[in-house]
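Re: weekly structure request thread

Next one in the queue (176 aa):
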Amino acid sequence: MKKTRAEKKKIIDSLKEGFLKSNAVFVSDYRGLTVSEISELRNRLRQYGARYSVVKNTLMRLAIEGTPSQGLHDLVDGPVAVTLIDGEPVSVAKVLQEFSKEFPKLELKGGLLGETLLSVEDIERLSKLPSRDALLGKLVGLLNALPTRLVCVLNGLPQKLVMTLSAIQREKERNV
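Done, posted below.
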């Protein structure tokens, strides 16, 4: 079913808006995936603030024109799908890596993080980073440990003083 010029314009505008608002964009080749597998991938990605769309190359090229995503131009070759990420890119990279291991027909081509072009290896390295929540948890743990250690140190000083004074008193009582 052929789309009208107005429908194509609407798709291009929607994509362009997505490119402008996204923190990161990943491009993949979806060839060989079934509709149900693509739906499953979309559901997994949606949890992390990402949108997975299969896009015609001409429409994608027109959508990235004049946006910071112009660097993706060389990746738009063959059947492509684009993952627009509004949330945390690390979690989305993890989902895509896990899904590509589960369904090897999904092939990552590259992407953008801000305005930095990412290779497939870069996305793989990104997927191995701890998630934002894990890093925040470590930070909270560190911040919590500092006052606890300080209290232990400060509490230890009076204890040592009392023990020293007690030892001096016992020593004086023996000498009397």
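The chain has two domains: 5-129, 130-176. The helical segments are 5-21, 35-46, 57-64, 89-102, 120-127, 132-175.
Next request, please.
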